[in-house]
Write a structure and sequence with these properties.
The protein is of the alpha/beta class. It has 18 helices and ten strands. It folds into three domains: about 120 residues, 3-Layer(aba) Sandwich (Rossmann fold); about 100 residues, PAS domain (Beta-Lactamase); about 170 residues, Hypothetical protein af1432 (Orthogonal Bundle). α10 packs across α16 and α11 crosses α16.
Length: about 475
């Protein structure tokens, strides 16, 4: 059961909506204006606020702007008898979660409150995960800081004398050790006496590695350079350690050439690097999960397009891969695919799910969703142009698209790819106002209108992808 506050200056609306919600198992409170509504909200414990926009003295927008200051987690549903694009945009920018047009039926208010509660649950879980992530990141940073300080301390002592150096130093003649410092002895677990005259292949985890290293070192020395590499040594007790090895030629006074080796045990550093890579992978997975959660929340408002964002993301990613784009660019396209319709959160559910054709007024509301999505996504510091791709995914090469009427190169490549994937997926899927048109019809549409509406390279790549794996993306 959730606590829902109804704020409206019309008593009949307050009592009717409250009764609908009580029958649905929720606790409903009522307030006749913004002032009394804020007084109740300050007491805390509310999950959802359903507020009218136009009320005496102060508007509903002012109510939830103030409410978010002392309760950022409360979900807000706006209702109005005079819906406009400007009203919807203002409500979304101020933080509204849904937008209902009066008169409001029982199913509409129950569905909107149910969606708001699911979003609140997702937000609560997101905050919990973010707190855990912060704890993990702080712990990881401490580990890395400790390991980094240790390694820097070791590197800073490389200029010490041979016997006191914090790195292993040895001299080899004819592939046999003739000298070793204390650190080298400690690293391999042998005494100086045991190492003297010992073949170098006994130091390596794989004996053949010594021969390969000698050949590589000879080639580098012939070029006037030195050899640096990472390898593995086996200690006397059988434990294998990861080692950074540097080999340089040494001219002997008696004539001939020896090799100096400088060895640093990097086992701890390599383990720290593996932990950092694991942490980065977990952070990426967390971000990806958050984006999928947002996409799932959007689909709850429009069951007819369930899975649309995922399919567009997958198809756009495959198109970009077919075009030879980099992995980093492909990741940005995939994320934009999941979020490209986020602006539809401002579109009333009645319009999204309308079974018939939309009128001009309703189309104008629908066409506002790219700009609203852009306004939302610019608040997030993506490393990819996700917001720009969202804004432009309904633009067309000939300037006939919306919202900006952009042409050709004014449209970023990510948006051009997204446009093709969006059209093909939409035409291949069922909508409230028509049955699915099918994959072949969708391909024919983009093929006939490439260069006029759609990017030719993106269209050809899309066709190749769908012909190669017709059942994977649609």
């Amino acid at each position: 059961m959730a606590r829902v506050l109804i704020v409206d200056d019309e008593p009949s609306i307050r009592f009717t909506l409250s009764e609908f919600l009580r029958r649905d198992g929720h606790e409903a409170g009522m307030a006749e204006d913004v002032e009394s509504g804020l007084a109740l909200l300050r007491q805390g414990g509310w999950d959802v606020v359903v507020t009218d926009i136009v009320m005496p003295r102060a508007s509903g927008v002012e109510l939830f702007r103030q409410a978010r200051q002392f309760d950022p987690d409360v979900q807000v549903i706006v209702m109005t008898g005079e819906p406009t694009v400007e009203t919807a945009s203002e409500a979304v920018r101020a933080g509204a979660n849904d937008y209902l047009v009066k008169p409001i039926g029982k199913n509409a208010i129950q569905r909107a409150v149910g969606n708001a509660l699911r979003i609140k649950k997702l937000n609560d879980e997101k905050r919990r995960l973010e707190a855990l992530n912060r704890q993990y990141q702080e712990s990881l940073e401490k580990i890395v800081e400790t390991r980094t300080k240790t390694l820097k301390a070791r590197e800073g002592l490389l200029q010490s004398l041979f016997t006191a150096a914090p790195v292993g130093i040895g001299i080899m003649e004819d592939h046999r050790l003739t000298a070793a410092n204390d650190e080298l002895c400690r690293m391999v677990g042998y005494t100086v006496e045991e190492l003297a005259g010992r073949s170098c292949d006994t130091l390596f985890a794989e004996p053949e590695e010594c021969r390969r290293l000698a050949e590589a070192a000879a080639a580098r020395f012939a070029e006037g350079g030195v050899l640096s590499l990472e390898t593995r040594w086996r200690r006397k007790d059988g434990v294998v350690r990861e080692v950074f090895l540097r080999c340089a030629p040494l001219q002997l006074e008696k004539g001939g050439q020896a090799v100096t080796i400088t060895a640093l045990d990097i086992t701890d550093r390599k383990e720290a690097e593996r932990q950092i890579e694991d942490g980065a992978r977990k952070l990426h997975d967390m971000m990806d999960g958050s984006i999928r959660a947002i996409s799932a929340a959007l689909e709850m408002r429009d069951p007819y397009t369930a899975g649309h964002e995922r399919r567009v993301a997958d198809l756009a990613h495959a198109i970009g891969a077919e075009m030879g784009l980099t992995a980093n660019t492909l990741e940005g396209i995939r994320i934009a695919g999941y979020l490209h319709d986020i602006g539809k959160i401002a579109v009333p559910s009645e319009i999204l799910n309308k079974p018939g054709r939309l009128n001009t007024y309703e189309l104008d509301i629908i066409k506002a969703h790219p700009q609203i999505g852009y306004d939302i996504l610019t608040q997030i510091s993506f490393v990819w142009p996700v917001a720009q791709a969202t804004l432009q995914h309904h633009e067309r090469l000939d300037g006939s698209g919306y919202p900006g009427g952009l042409r050709a190169d004014q449209i970023i490549p990510e948006a051009r790819i997204l446009a093709v994937a969006d059209v093909v997926e939409a035409m291949s899927s069922h909508r409230p106002y028509r049955p699915a048109l099918g994959r072949e019809c969708a391909i024919q549409e983009v093929r006939q209108k490439k260069e006029t509406l759609y990017d030719p390279q993106a269209v050809e790549a899309c066709i190749r992808v769908l012909e190669a794996e017709p059942a994977k993306y649609l």
